[in-house]
Amino acid sequence: MSESVVADFVGRFFAPGVDGEPPRGRIILSQRRLVLAADGYKETIPLSKVFDVTIGQVPPEMAGYFNDTVTVAYRKGEGRAVAAIEGKGTDIDRFATILFKVLLNGTKALARHPAKVGGRVVDADTRQTRLDVTQGALTFEGDGDAFTVDLANVVSVERAQRDLGNGSHPVVSFRHVEDGTAVTSEVGMTSGRLTNVLGRYVRLRYADVQAELEDLEPSEEEMEVLVAAYSAGPGVSLNKVVDIEPQRLTMLLNGLIDEDLLVDTDEGTQLTAKGRVVVGQRIESVNT
């Protein structure tokens, strides 16, 4: 391949034409294609044909062979095909992140931001933007000021039909907390294929945090402390902004730190990514 390789590792895979037990071979990803190669077998998948990527969802016919996988759905000839890739934990996680970046980085998108502030619809213009995928964030640059969405602050995501100036098309609509307010952004890519991939990426990152929060049920006192930590910002003592007896506050803080919702830093007690989502969900419920 003439284009540069961005990922190259050894793992097992299942793809069209593989019979029986999945082979162990090389998984090579470049800016244009994904290649699966083993003795006597090679499958080349143009990235322009990929329309979906899932993590951890093993197709039924492969369940007896694989545990954690990255599954790639793509168009092959007149039909569709699926390839499932398994590797070591760090390899497969890194591969999934790189694959999404290669598929989405630099792509053009129509964006309406904000489409809503709280529950109020905003008459914002649609922008022509270019998407930049970084670790944990999406940045949209183009007409007007660029805006960045911290994926740790996303509190809901859905696929919807919207008219962003080019007729009604599928868009990714996601709510995220921005300066203490729940904001909705709507983004439509240049094709339904890329819109689907973007929606999958946002949902995966949102689901990662949601899975960690399933068993958390903060009390009203704990929520008061979390919201205060969000509002106060770095360097402000929570003793000065919450009306809770100091000994009780210390106990609450220790419990929230144990649950990985708060963390002690040189600048004071601050919210973790999980803590920001918990607060974001509370802010969203109040705003709506």
What is this structure's SSE topology?
Elements: E1 5-14, E2 24-30, E3 33-38, E4 41-46, E5 50-55, E6 70-76, E7 79-86, H1 89-104, E8 108-117, E9 120-121, E10 126-134, E11 137-142, E12 147-150, E13 154-163, E14 168-178, E15 181-189, H2 192-213, H3 220-232, H4 246-258, E16 262-265, E17 268-271, H5 273-287
Helix pairs in contact: 2-5, 3-4, 3-5
How would you explain this protein's 3D organization?
- By secondary structure, this protein is an alpha+beta fold.
- Strands 8, 9, 10, 11, 12, 13, 14 and 15 form an eight-stranded antiparallel sheet that branches. A seven-stranded antiparallel sheet has the order 4-3-2-1-7-6-5. The chain has a two-stranded antiparallel sheet with strand order 16-17.
- It is globular and about 70 Å long.
- It is built from five helices and 17 strands.
- The longest helix is centred in the C-terminal third of the chain and has 22 residues, at 192-213.
What is the radius of gyration computed over CA atoms, rounded to a whole number of angstroms? Answer: 22 Å
Biggest β-sheet, characterized?
8 strands, antiparallel
The strand count comes to 17
| Overall helicity | 25-40%
Uncertain ranges? none
Distance between the termini: 52 Å
Described by the principal axes of the CA atoms, the overall outline is globular
Residue fraction in strands = 35-45%
Number of distinct helices: 5
The secondary-structure class comes to alpha+beta
Mean pLDDT: 87
- Helices and strands, in order, run as EEEEEEEHEEEEEEEEHHHEEH
Summarize the structure.
The protein is α+β, with helices and mostly antiparallel strands. It has helices spanning 89-104, 192-213, 220-232, 246-258, 273-287, and strands at residues 5-14, 24-30, 33-38, 41-46, 50-55, 70-76, 79-86, 108-117, 120-121, 126-134, 137-142, 147-150, 154-163, 168-178, 181-189, 262-265, 268-271.
